[in-house]
Amino acid sequence: MTEAEAVAQAQLDIVVGVLKIARQELQKIALALPHSPQEFSHEDHTGEPPDVTNEVRRVIQCVLADRLDGAVRELSAAAIYRPVVVEPESGTHGRQHGKGRRKKKAGKARAHRKNQGQGRGGA
Question: Which of 69, 108, 111, 120 stands 20 to 30 A from 2 (CA)?
């Protein structure tokens, strides 16, 4: 990992901490709101706009669920991400292990059979 990548991940970790604090504060705001008279009504509020309490609580819940929770989850994953490194097998020197040889042998065997009149369909 480069130094720039390590710095970026450390910065992401700080941002995640700030977002978690923001999430907690938003939850406190929503919980501190008094109950609204609309919450106690059993009727639908047809055409009536929500009161401030309901609107603030609704917006906070939507922001938490739709944006902040996902952002914390995704950024946390990026802050600790490490790629899976696949190490080459020793002794292959960049070649595919054993595959090239079999094809050459199979090709030589076919050519040998063809020269002797034993191609596919064999005589």
Answer: 69
- Which contacts qualify for 8-11: CB closer than 8 Å, 24 or more apart? 9/78, 9/79, 9/80, 9/81, 10/79
Sign of CA dihedral 35, 37, 40, 46: negative
**Inter-CA distances, 105 with 7, 91, 99, 115, 122, Å:** 53, 21, 10, 15, 19
E strand or H helix at 73: helix 69-80
| Each residue's pLDDT tens digit, 18-45 | 999 999 999 999 999 988 777 666 565 5
